[in-house]
Design goal:
The complex is a heterotrimer. By secondary structure, chain A is of the alpha/beta class. Chain A contains 9 helices and 30 strands. In chain A, the strands form 7 sheets. Chain A has a 6-stranded mixed beta sheet with strand order 3-2-1-7-21-20, covered by helices on one side. Helices cover 45% and strands 8% of the residues of chain C. Chain C has 16 helices and 10 strands. The chains are: A alpha/beta, B alpha+beta, C alpha+beta. Chains A and B meet through strand 3, helix 8 and strand 24 of A and strand 1, strand 3 and strand 5 of B. Chain A: It comes from Kitasatospora aureofaciens (Streptomyces aureofaciens).
Chain lengths: 451, 72, 394
């Protein structure tokens, strides 16, 4: 029947984690209509986190990363074809092959791509890589297996650090060049970034901070790089790990609120138009979205997190096939993890939404700790290092906006658990690596006030 | 027979390592707590991974077939 | 009835065959139910799960002022708990010995087969004494390196230790139980002596691994070795017996589920998890707050016992749909059968392998068997709840 939300035409643009999980969830929610998934890569949906870990270490190959299905989404897959635009009025998605797909409801999950080296000529040198796709992973893994003399990693964010960790585990010499004061500082703030720097150096990484790479050298093949401090790094492989760019260009003419920070949507994953009016037939999920979160002052969050893609896909799918009063908000707390230099780092909440931190349990010396982040006297995030089982407790504190610092009485309580120190989260513009959580609004206390 | 795939929701993983005990050829601890795993599950490991998925205290392991995308 | 007597009623032996209505009453009265003896009893899933992850909750009996020797890691707090558990894990599991338990599959299958050899149609057997008890005992003896023929010796010690460790209301008029401490010392001495015999001549067993650890920083002291070995020996054979016996009992009571498992053997791993939810081997754990706390609106002072009824949390309808139904294909089964958080069961993976082997091999026998006595006679212990005997006509 007309207007039946469980029937009709749904198009999902983006055939990665969020796209797949949304397609499955639509069927779980009882959607019986026609479902089409468009993806610009020619592959079935695959998992990306192993690209910087198992694949580089040779424990998995890049062509075995396809995501297992929870259920068959019974979709038509249009893979290897790029979406080039949306006509919101005619309700059609335009494809690069000239085709166009009509929809009743549309889900945009086009994710991000690796930020390329700004000089295209230098970026095209043989031996210069970015790491986002399985082709990138296969190429880099093959090059590392051929045992280069030295690898240069540009950018000390999570991806860059994981690549450096894999190189050291393979016994390869590696230099990390980071513009900020330490690795991971953009995501974790000052204290843990110092631990990250110590871990890198202890594992034999040639870590250069406070420098930028000014040029990549080579005649056809990469041979080294110039740094802003005047030094030169001789290397035969270079990985550019400068963060991600959101895949929104195809929406430039669409009238949607799409920009470099992603596509703005409401808490129910419904996209905004450029006038700030919410649509009721266009939804957004995954890395490409930007959404308000009540626990962080309703600021718009942009996350590049695996877990967010899964959670948001489920909410978007639910809301696509249910009427307004039955729709759900996307309130899941951001969570991410990274495994590097033998340590397991997990985070819940938004560490960059903080002014102070305490080490609540464990210690830096033990390489095992729980660090809690506070903003204006409330707990807003926690990061554990090899203490993942502690994270649920702190998650609860964040969800209930508990007072910061956290209450006394914890076992393994650090001596300095009451001494809050500045979180020292830098302005993202000073970093090589992009933060994986971006607060894309204003901090509430820095709003203009009318006098 | 289609080769099975596995993926672990490491957002949920708390390092209980039950999967490593039950299927040590597929799952591996990296350090004390970090989990790495082979994404392709050989036929002779499917039963072990099924056990690992059932036993996972945070239900983070998915074992299944990859999406059939119509041979494209 | 008065909710302050719930712990007394749950631990009353008369409740052993079916404590679940009392757990329902507990959840109804909860979430935090003060008891007549000054303790607090909690039976709702989400509160239990949160407290098992709450770093302010101590597992150490010394937190309630009890003067006692240093307990094994099960009842220690971090960082000491973490240090000792990690050392105990080195010869048992990942990251140092990831293949150890998996490598025991063949042996567990062979022991199971041998035990089932005498199971012939028409015979009456005791599933506990003839099967569910000897299997884990044989396995833990081989793993630790304890001579199986000493079983009568350490069984007496073990009985005394678990009786002393049982959860019961605090009765000030009762004599403090010294039998447990005495047994613990004797069993510890016995195991330490076995370990000493292997110094310099290591076998494949865990006692050998502990005593021959070359790195002094990773070596257990003799006291720690004794405490750890006592814990592993007891936990290894006082709990899995319940899991297997509870499994057999559940299948015999629900023939349609038994049939289903025979038709769909790939469900067995999930059926074992469902057993751990539906009839867990360990029903309660005790914790003690390190600080004055507010638990779900109830102030709980530091130093008083908080009893977490894991088996009640497993039947909480707020967490599990249709919780009193045994469903071997249940999805989203994040049960508390092995606890959760830093004290999650150390030997869980071994118990699972034993349950897969034991219940898998038992299924064909159970298909034509009947219970001789229902409910069967239960063990005295309320915390480690399971049948003492399970007579079955094959």
């Amino acid at each position: 029947m007309a207007g039946d939300l469980k029937d009709g035409l749904i198009v999902i643009v983006g055939a990665s984690l969020a796209g797949l999980r949304a397609a499955e969830a639509l069927r779980e929610e009882g959607f019986t209509g026609s479902l089409t998934v468009v993806g610009d890569e020619p592959h079935a949906p695959y998992d990306r986190p192993p690209l910087s870990k198992q694949v580089l270490l040779g424990q998995a190959t890049a062509d075995t990363l396809e995501l297992p299905m929870r259920r068959d989404p019974d979709a038509e897959w249009r893979l290897g074809v790029r979406a080039t635009g949306v006509d919101l009025l005619a309700k059609r998605v335009l494809l690069a092959d000239g085709d166009s797909l009509p929809y009743d409801r549309l889900l945009i999950a086009t994710g991000t791509r690796a930020r390329p080296w700004p000089n295209p000529e230098e970026g095209a040198l043989d031996g210069v890589f970015t790491l986002r796709t399985r082709e990138d992973g296969a190429g880099l893994a093959e090059r590392l297996a051929a045992r280069p003399e030295r690898v240069l990693v540009i950018g000390g964010g999570f991806t860059g650090s994981e690549i450096a960790s894999a190189c050291r585990e393979l016994g390869l010499a590696v230099t990390v060049a980071e513009r900020g004061p330490a690795p991971l500082v953009g995501a974790l703030g000052g204290t843990l970034s110092k631990l990250a720097a110590v871990m890198q150096r202890n594992h034999g990484v040639d870590l250069r901070t406070g420098v930028t790479v000014t040029a990549l050298n080579g005649n056809g093949a990469f041979t080294g790089a110039q740094l802003s401090d005047g030094s030169r790094v001789e290397a035969d492989v270079c990985v550019v790990a400068l963060g991600a760019i959101r895949n929104v260009e195809w929406l430039a003419e669409s009238g949607l609120a799409a920009g470099p920070r992603g596509i703005a949507c409401d808490a129910g994953c419904r996209a905004f138009t450029m006038y700030g009016i919410v649509t009721d037939d266009v939804f957004v999920a995954g890395d490409v979205s930007r959404f308000p979160h009540p626990l962080f002052g309703y600021q718009m969050l942009s996350l590049e997190h695996w877990g967010n893609a899964v959670e948001q896909a489920a909410v978007a799918a639910h809301n696509m096939v249910n009427p307004g009063p039955l729709q759900r908000p996307h309130l899941a707390l951001p969570v991410f993890w990274s495994t590097q230099f033998g340590l397991n780092i997990k985070s819940v909440g938004v560490p960059t939404y903080s002014d102070h931190v305490v080490i609540a349990q464990g210690s830096l010396e033990a390489r095992r700790l729980a660090m809690v982040y506070g903003y204006q006297g409330r707990v807003t995030a926690a990061v554990t290092v090899d203490m993942a089982k502690a994270l649920d407790y702190y998650r609860h504190l964040i969800e209930t906006a508990a007072p910061f610092p956290p209450p006394p009485g914890a076992q393994d309580r650090a001596i300095a658990a009451d001494i809050a120190i500045p979180s020292a989260v830098p302005d993202p513009s000073v970093l090589s690596h992009g933060p994986t959580v971006a607060l894309t609004g204003h901090l509430p206390d820095r709003r203009l006030t009318v006098v | 027979m289609v080769e099975m795939r596995t993926v672990v929701d490491l957002t949920r993983c708390q390092g209980y390592a039950q999967c490593v005990f039950l299927a040590p050829e597929v799952f591996e601890l990296h350090g004390e707590e970090g989990l790495l795993y082979a994404t392709a599950v050989p036929d002779d490991q499917v039963e072990r991974v099924r056990q690992a998925a059932a036993a996972c205290p945070v239900q983070a392991i998915l074992l299944g077939e990859e999406v059939s995308t119509g041979g494209r | 009835m008065d909710s302050a007597t719930l712990l007394a009623r749950i631990t009353d032996y008369a409740s052993r065959p079916n404590p679940y209505p009392l757990y329902a009453e507990l959840r109804e009265a909860g979430p935090v139910v003060p008891q007549a003896d000054g303790s607090y009893l909690i039976g709702t899933y989400h509160h239990i799960a949160a407290l098992l992850h709450d770093p302010r909750m101590s597992a150490d009996p010394r937190t309630r002022g009890e003067m006692t020797h240093k307990p094994p890691f099960l009842r220690l707090d971090d960082p000491e708990h973490h240090r000792l558990r990690t050392l105990a894990m080195r010869p048992f599991g990942p990251p140092h010995s990831p293949g150890r338990v998996d490598g025991m599959r063949g042996e567990i299958d062979r022991i199971t087969e041998a035990l089932l050899e005498p199971f012939e149609a028409g015979h009456q057997v005791d599933i506990v004494d003839d099967f569910a008890y000897p299997l884990p005992v044989t396995v833990i003896c081989r793993l630790l390196g304890v001579p199986h023929e000493d079983e009568p010796l350490f069984r007496a010690w073990s009985d005394a230790i678990v009786a002393a460790a049982d959860v019961r209301p605090d009765d000030e008029s009762a004599e403090p139980d010294k039998g447990g401490d005495q047994a613990r010392m004797e069993l510890g001495g016995y195991l330490l002596n076995l370990a000493e015999q292997r110094r310099g001549k290591p076998g494949e067993d865990m006692l050998s691994a502990f005593v021959n650890e070359p790195d002094p920083a990773l070596r257990l002291t003799p006291e720690e070795l004794a405490e750890t070995a006592v814990l592993l020996l007891i936990a290894g054979h006082e709990t899995t017996v319940n899991l297997i016996a509870n499994g057999a009992l559940t299948f015999l009571r629900q023939p349609e589920q038994l049939d289903r498992l025979r038709r769909e053997p790939e469900l067995l791993p999930r059926a074992v998890e469902e057993l751990l939810r539906y009839e867990p081997p360990v029903h309660m754990r005790e914790r003690i707050p390190h600080a004055d706390m507010d638990i779900a609106g109830t102030p709980v002072p530091r130093g008083v016992p908080v009893i977490l009824a894991l088996a009640s949390g497993n039947r909480d309808p707020q967490r599990f749909p249709d919780p009193d139904r045994f469903d071997p294909a249940r999805q989203d089964n994040q049960h508390l059968g092995f606890g959760s958080g830093i004290h999650a069961c150390y030997g869980g993976p071994l118990a699972r392998l034993e349950a897969y082997a034991a219940l898998g091999a038992l299924l064909p026998h159970l298909a034509t068997a009947s219970l001789v006595q229902d409910p069967p006679p239960y063990r005295q212990n309320a915390m480690l709840r399971g049948p003492r005997h399970l007579p079955v006509r094959l």
